[in-house]
Amino acid sequence: MKAYVFPGQGAQFVGMGKDLYENFPVAKDMFEKANEILGFRITDLMFDGTEEDLKQTKVTQPAIFLHSVILAKTLEYFKPEMVAGHSLGEFSALVANGALSFEDGLQLVYKRALAMQKACEVEQSTMAAIIGLEDKVVEDICAEIEEVVVPANYNCPGQLVISGSMKGIEVACEKLTEAGAKRALPLKVGGAFHSPLMEPARVELAEAINSTNFNTPICPVYQNVDAKPYTNAAQIKENLIKQLTSPVKWTYIMQNMIADGMTSYTEVGPGTVLQGLLKKVDRQIPTQSA
């Protein structure tokens, strides 16, 4: 079965999407529609902005979403049998598999970005990548710490990102290093994504998601909150709302896709991070960039 996967925040780069805009009329139309919906020319920031411009959550998230969704639209061979997206990428996956319209998907992503940025401004928080420990060890040590610190991204075996308060991450990195982590690397991110500190953003986004029409998708979407495939629109909505304060279970998504018959793995969007993560799970499945 053909799987198409969509990257999340961190995959952005200056110039992203410019080749699509210049070479595909449908892409140009979609980018201009996005400029109109957002109320500013995000294409200027994507094509000719600075890295600092693109690092702003309110720019990063819609930019990656646009690059991914518009790229999928230009692919003649795009016939997914299963899809998934890493964090933000789940919205791209839902548009690509027909569960959401392009316009509604973009509006939700922008509202999500603004809500997350606002939540990050309320309390200083961050994330850190923990390399070389079993998930259970990381989970147990995080649970022992009094400060807010939780597993946030189960990326692949031996790589788990934690999320929480500045103090919580500092303490966790010390304890996890003592426990044998090869690296405990603080990340340059705006805040504690996929943690309880995103609760204000979750509440805000829930209202927008509940008032948006979702369709039955053309193929299952493996969702971040539990790594299982869904085609029911109501369930997809519910899982999407939970996503902001729940961990991204990407390792288990890949394992479940393999168990369900995945034969090829195409990353649609900027970067090749997701291909690298799959190789840590199963090197036999062919991967490619769209």
Low-confidence residue ranges: none
Spell the H/E element sequence: EHHHHHEHHEHEEHEHEEHHEHE
Distance between the termini: 16 Å
Q: Strand percentage, roughly?
A: 15-25%
What is the mean predicted local confidence, pLDDT? 96
Find the structural class using helix and strand composition. Answer: alpha/beta
Rounded to an integer, what's the Rg over CA atoms?
Answer: 18 Å
Structural summary, described in words:
By secondary structure, this protein is an alpha/beta fold. Helices cover 49% and strands 16% of the residues. The protein contains 13 helices and ten strands. Strand 7 (221-222) and strand 8 form a beta hairpin. Helix 5 runs parallel beside helix 6. The longest helix has 21 residues, at 102-122. It is globular, with a radius of gyration of 18 Å. The chain starts with a strand and ends with a strand. The model has no long low-confidence stretch (mean pLDDT 96).
Sum this structure up briefly:
With 290 residues, this protein is an alpha/beta fold. The chain has helices spanning 18-23, 25-38, 42-48, 51-55, 57-74, 89-96, 102-122, 135-144, 166-178, 199-210, 233-242, 250-259, 273-281, and strands at residues 2-6, 82-85, 125-131, 149-156, 159-165, 183-186, 221-222, 229-230, 264-267, 287-289.
